[in-house]
Structure formats: structure tokens, C-alpha cells
Amino acid sequence: MCELLGMSANVPTDIRFSFAALARRGGETGPHADGWGIAFYEGRGARAFHEPEPSAQSELARLLRRMPIKSRIVIAHVRKANRGRVNLENTHPFSRELWGRRWTFAHNGQLKGVKKWPLAWFKPVGSTDSEHAFCWMLDQLQERWRDLPSPTRLDRAVADLCAELNTLGVFNMLLSDSRTLYAHCGKRLCYLTRRAPFGTATLVDEDWRVDFAQETGADDVVTVIATKALTRDECWTDVERGHVLVLRDGAVHVLTPTGRKVAPPCEG
Amino acid sequence: MCELLGMSANVPTDIRFSFAALARRGGETGPHADGWGIAFYEGRGARAFHEPEPSAQSELARLLRRMPIKSRIVIAHVRKANRGRVNLENTHPFSRELWGRRWTFAHNGQLKGVKKWPLAWFKPVGSTDSEHAFCWMLDQLQERWRDLPSPTRLDRAVADLCAELNTLGVFNMLLSDSRTLYAHCGKRLCYLTRRAPFGTATLVDEDWRVDFAQETGADDVVTVIATKALTRDECWTDVERGHVLVLRDGAVHVLTPTGRKVAPPCEG
């Protein structure tokens, strides 16, 4: 298995606090030592970093802990390989262009038989079931629309594709087209939204404490989503299995498998 | 204008010596301060780094000068913007997947009217004429073959597409599919091949001197290609305008616009 980390915010936001916890789980406080990657969207582009080595010992990951890269959408992953060799082309997050948008995808779980699902245009570079699933999703979207559809239509289509993939096994995933962050919970995923009044938080795995009131503006809305809670003194909400979170500008919308929208617990 | 740097080698090779010279031209010894990027192939994957800021002052570029990333194919670029804003999505090298291969592209020059050339599948994420040209090339290749063709067929097709683009202005470019490095000279490009017996070399812009006999194995073949000579005590060969260099495992083949293969000067 692997671990996922995602962020959606309404202002460019520094993710170093959360990334520090994830990076240590890559071979130090967790067994995910088979590679790591992170993509920071900036406009329609993304700064992406990948290494097929443990993040806990990585000089590049240490540099990222020092560099204040601010982003409104982030997807990160630490890998414990189960399908596909440990190498660069099998290191998440994966990326492709569709409709002039840069798409980024990371997955945790296993999808039995997905490699038999035919692909027309998008082909895997590596050998993971995850990348095959990503290519299949983009193929399906491209077949349906020649240009970027409205957000609502795209949300529904992504949720339907997630539901199909989820029938093959465990499909925890993060996906973005540079506008929206999608998260599907196959088995385990949780999130929290930070907004005013901001409090303090302490990482689960180390004694790093942040006072968000000092770090953020009054109107900031930041949602963080992760496989396991990253802080020990905040209230994380478990995503229900089969639900898709649709995150834009930090705001959370929940889509159920049948397409009904439900209010997220923190606002309901 | 911008500057290009490419490398093809028969063994994973450290490019830091050459990259140091290029990085300083990004805002220090040269005016190319509008961003920089580098892609290091490793198998079918690539480690890629991009910043829309000057490389000469970049902490990330400094880290890369310390990290011994070894690669058999490298493409790097420092940007002086003429078309397209200074931002991440306009920062070379650009990357796409075609036929399950990761393609990387960097360009120096201007292509007047290329944005009017229609695109079917590959669409630019940013607004440069360069990325449009890259998308057009991949569109043309995808239209011709559904799967990766033989190297010889692909070489000829790439050279023909370069010749078409070159009619629009200046098309100095580097392109790779993870197997071959292609270089087209529209106006200015030079290269050299290092092989036994190895000598020493000193960078043009600073007093960094390397003794390649200490750094390389007896069978290593390394070809470096750049906009301008990077060392002051080696013999760089200018590529003729309209010629395409096809580089595999460090070996150089020259394709002329009419398709005739010519022996490179160093071996002729």
C-alpha cells in the first residue's frame, strides 16, 4: 500500500507542514520506501518532483521542506510497491495532458485485472495498475468530450469512472485537472478544512507545531486530504467508502456513488 | 532567444559540468533569466525540474549541481521569453506521452504563424509557439502510426517535420522519446563527442576544469549538444542549418533535409 496527500486552497498555500509528515512515512515512521512524488500546481502548470528512493532519506525532499512553494492544488504520494518494479516510470503522481490541461493522478490500492481494460489514446509508460487506470479514465473522458466540459458534468463523469474502477479492488485516489481536486475513497481517506478562526496543530509523527493564525489570512480556506490523519490535535473526517470529494478553492463537495450531493459533515 | 543543452551517452553519465555552464547563463553570464528546466531520462521515465525564475539564483539549480544524477539522455533549457508570458506552463522542456513513451521537447527560436496550424489530440497547456509546435509534431506522428515505429522510420519522420517547422522561422530544438535524442539546427547549434582517450576540459564561463579520464570508463561515449560551446579547450562542431542530429547511445548520425545520411565530421 501507499499513502496519499492532497490539498485544495483558495489562495496559494504552503504545504510543507503536511508534506513533512508524509515524507517521514516514506521509510522512517512508515514503510513506504519505494519512491515518492509531489506535484504543486501553479496556474495551469505544475512543479513536479519524483524519486524512486525513500523520501525520508532524500536530499531533494529535504530541500522541498525548506522551499516555500505555494500552491492551490497539491498531490503527493509515498510508495510501497505491490505492482510494478521500483523505478522512476512507476513513481506516482502520474501526469498527462488532456484538453490543454495538465492532469495529475496518484493511487493507493490494487485493481485486479485493470490492465486488461483496453486503451485507445493514453498509454502507460511504466507497468503499474495505477497508471493503467489513470490512462483508462482519460481515454473515457476524451471519448466523451473533445473539449473541457463544465465542472458539474466533469465531476459526475469522474465519480462514475471511479465507481467502475472501485469494483476491481481498492481505489483510493487523487486526481486534478488544475481546476479541481478529486479524491475517491475506496477504503481509507480522511480530510479536514482549515478556515478562520484558525488554531494550532501538531504533527502526529514529530513535535512540529504550527499556529495557523500566524500563517494564514482571515479568508483562507485550505482543505487537506490524506490516507491517515497527519495531525494529532485536529478533527479529521473519514471519507465514506465509495464517496468522491470534489474540491475547488478549498471548498468540499461530496458525491455519492449514485450522484446525490451530500453536505460535508463539518458544514452539515 | 534561449539556450539549449542536450546529452546522449551509452552509459548513465553525470551532466553537472555542462549544466553548471548553462545554469549560469540563466541570468548571470547570459540574459536567459525567464525560467529554466531540465529532464533526465532514467529508463522510460524522466526526472524533470522546472522553474519560471532565473537558474543562476535558483536554490533548486544549486542542488542539482550537487546531486550526481546520472542519465543517458538529458534535455535542458534556459529561457529568454519572446512569445508567451513568464510562467510555469511556458517553461521548457515540455513533455507528453505518445505510444507509451515519454517525449520531451525544448526549443530556441520563433515560429511565425505556427499557432494557426491545427491540432487534433495534443493541445498546449501554455501559450508559447514552442509548445504548439511540439504538439503539432506529436499529432503528425500519432496520425501516421498507432504504435512506436522502427527507429529509422521515426528518424526520417522527425526530420521531415522539423524541415516543415523550420520554414516558419528559427527552429533550434531538442526532442527525445527516451530512446533517441533528436536535435534540429535552424540557426545555431554545436556538439562534441567525448570518447577514449579522454582529455581535460574547462568551462567557458568559469574556471571549472574536469579531467574526463578520471571520471569516465574506457568505453564511454558521450555527446553533448548546445547552443554555444560550453568549454574553451575542446573542439565543438557547428551543426549545419537544416540538419538533424540523431543521437543514440552517444553515437551521432546526421540527417540532411533531403534524407541523405552524412558521416559526422569527427568520424568522416
UniProtKB/TrEMBL annotation, chains A, B:
Molecular function (Gene Ontology), one example: transferase activity
One Pfam family named in its UniProt record: GATase_4
Gene3D superfamilies: Glutamine Phosphoribosylpyrophosphate, subunit 1, domain 1
Stored CDD domains: YafJ
Keyword list, A-Z: Glutamine amidotransferase, Transferase
Domain spans labelled Glutamine amidotransferase type-2: 2-250
Listed name of the protein: Glutamine amidotransferase
Biological classification of the source: Bacteria, Pseudomonadati, Pseudomonadota, Alphaproteobacteria, Hyphomicrobiales
